[in-house]
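Exam revision sheet. Question 4 asks you to relate a sequence to its structure. Input first:
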Amino acid sequence: MGRRSLFGLAALAVAFAYSATGASAATQIARTIPFAANAGASTAVQQECQVQTLVPQGIQQAGADVTLVDAPAKGGRWLELTISEVHAPGGGLFSGPKWLTVAGTLYDRGKKIGSFRAKRLTTGMRSTCGSLAKIAQVIGQDIAGWLAAPSMNAEIGDAR
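Answer key, structure tokens:
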């Protein structure tokens, strides 16, 4: 075998090994994430504000290497998210600050490799859903940043 053939085989082996580790695979996130049973979100917020889809979209729009899926494949790399707290009384800016907390756990081939609690709050928006949409976008940016260097038990955004 010539030198070129050996070099080509070696390059192919390195590329295969790299892809087999999942290093180049995007992190999967459910396109719709659940509210925790005790999150405190009113029925109106759950049905009208679309926070369940806005957080995953915010992560993707922030430039993180993620793929939104209906159900993450548990054999690859996935981020499990739950909306753990919502404070969003109706009345827009007249009802005071709104906040949202999201808990997340990052898995790689079944092994837990990171976890966080992200929280953001806002005041001054005209509508409750508008406030939550802005918060979801900023939390998405926070989570995208964390995905670049995940750690265990991180407190991100206003959760610090």
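Marking note for examiners. The radius of gyration is 19 Å.
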